[in-house]
């Protein structure tokens, strides 16, 4: 989760690289855009406050750059700021937006641009709601609403080789990445995390389609496929990096996490010790950790630890599995 200190750092020392870069001349953009969108995005204009209905729309979905279509914001992060411009607390990814110091009109402000195509979007202020405290004050004309129910969830339940292998099998899950969250240093290595000194947990970032699987169901499966009652431990793996944790992105997720934990407590005799914490950063783990189980099925740990877990998981959550995984179940017996 980006905070004001990150925005200032990006604006002073440089922005993170975008996934791709799109460069066109103003003449080319003018042909593609409506006049008002061209004036705002390419000539750094500002639309009149309260000029768009987008301020009062809060339906689920995503908001993309009107120029290049890159996804910038999720409707979950949109809030009523009362300013007359659509306002968000957080972009969809840390590299979606570029930040520049803007000293026009005798003020020092932070300009927000599409990091992919450099479209001017609006400004960012530090008076937004917690936990990010940010207010992305956007021109509605610089954005277009797109239907998308793709969301991300981040949690840890011990060794990420195991948790990644489990969640990859679920219907509605489009991508699972292994990484580190909840620690004190930036860009930690596996070695550093394993030392237990950085405070990071081994976590997975699950991309999912909320039409096909709900956040609550992901958490139910999470709490059923690891032991959430052993502090800083999963089986033989001991250390804070193996703690049971749910990192939430917004207040709705936090509330859902609390409810699901209360609900799942009936399944366990010992108290559930799963930590619920705001997501600050997800650092993707080294490449050799990604898809570890699928790439190393013959390895001892996979056979001894992950195979039995997956077998149990397949039986327990048969109806939630991707179609080809249900077939796997029948052929494997
Ligand atoms: Zn763009």
UniProtKB/TrEMBL annotation:
EC number, as in UniProt: 1.8.4.11
MsrB domain span: 26-148
Enzyme class, broadest EC rank: oxidoreductase
Gene Ontology molecular-function annotations: peptide-methionine (S)-S-oxide reductase activity
Pfam families membership: PMSR, SelR
Record field: catalytic activity: L-methionyl-[protein] + [thioredoxin]-disulfide + H2O = L-methionyl-(R)-S-oxide-[protein] + [thioredoxin]-dithiol; L-methionyl-[protein] + [thioredoxin]-disulfide + H2O = L-methionyl-(S)-S-oxide-[protein] + [thioredoxin]-dithiol; [thioredoxin]-disulfide + L-methionine + H2O = L-methionine (S)-S-oxide + [thioredoxin]-dithiol
Oxidoreductase as UniProt keyword: yes
Record-linked InterPro entries: Met_Sox_Rdtase_MsrA_dom, Met_Sox_Rdtase_MsrA_sf, Met_Sox_Rdtase_MsrB_dom, Mss4-like_sf
UniProtKB keywords: Multifunctional enzyme, Oxidoreductase
Active site: 159
Family membership: Belongs to the MsrA Met sulfoxide reductase family.
Entries under NCBIfam families matching the protein: msrA (TIGR00401), peptide-methionine (R)-S-oxide reductase MsrB (TIGR00357)
HAMAP family: MsrA (MF_01401)
Function comment: Has an important function as a repair enzyme for proteins that have been inactivated by oxidation. Catalyzes the reversible oxidation-reduction of methionine sulfoxide in proteins to methionine.
UniProt-recorded name of the protein: Peptide methionine sulfoxide reductase MsrA
The organism of origin for this protein: Flavobacterium rhizosphaerae
Taxonomic classification: Bacteria, Pseudomonadati, Bacteroidota, Flavobacteriia, Flavobacteriales
Gene: msrA
């Amino acid at each position: 989760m980006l905070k004001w200190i990150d925005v200032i750092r990006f604006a002073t020392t440089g922005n993170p690289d975008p996934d791709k870069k799109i460069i066109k001349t103003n003449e080319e953009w003018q042909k593609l855009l409506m006049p008002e969108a061209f004036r705002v995005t390419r000539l750094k204009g500002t639309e009149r406050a309260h000029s768009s209905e987008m301020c009062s729309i809060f339906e689920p979905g995503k908001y993309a750059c009107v120029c290049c279509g890159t996804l910038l914001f999720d409707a979950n992060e949109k809030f009523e700021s009362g300013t007359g411009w659509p306002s968000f607390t957080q972009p969809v990814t840390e590299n979606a937006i570029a930040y520049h110091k803007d000293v026009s009109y005798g003020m020092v402000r932070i300009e927000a641009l599409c990091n992919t195509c450099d479209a001017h979007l609006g400004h960012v202020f530090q008076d937004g709601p917690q936990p990010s405290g940010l207010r992305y004050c956007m021109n509605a004309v610089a954005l277009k609403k797109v239907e998308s129910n793709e969301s991300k969830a981040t949690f840890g339940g011990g060794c990420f080789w195991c948790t990644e292998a489990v969640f990859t099998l679920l219907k509605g899950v489009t991508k699972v990445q292994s990484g580190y969250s909840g620690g004190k240093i930036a860009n930690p290595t596996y070695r550093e995390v394993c030392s237990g000194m950085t405070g990071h947990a081994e976590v997975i970032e699950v991309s999912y389609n909320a039409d096909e699987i709900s956040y609550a169901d992901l958490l139910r499966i999470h709490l059923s496929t690891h032991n959430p009652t052993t502090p800083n431990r999963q089986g033989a793996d001991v250390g804070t990096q193996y703690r049971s944790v749910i990192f939430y992105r917004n207040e709705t997720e936090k509330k859902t996490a609390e409810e699901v934990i209360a609900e799942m407590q009936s399944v366990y005799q010992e108290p559930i010790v799963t930590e619920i914490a705001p997501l600050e950063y997800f650092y993707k783990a080294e490449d050799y950790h990604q898809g570890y189980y699928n790439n190393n099925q013959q390895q001892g740990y996979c056979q001894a630890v992950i195979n039995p877990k997956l077998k149990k998981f397949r039986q327990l959550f048969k109806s939630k599995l991707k179609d080809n995984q249900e077939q796997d179940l029948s052929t494997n017996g």
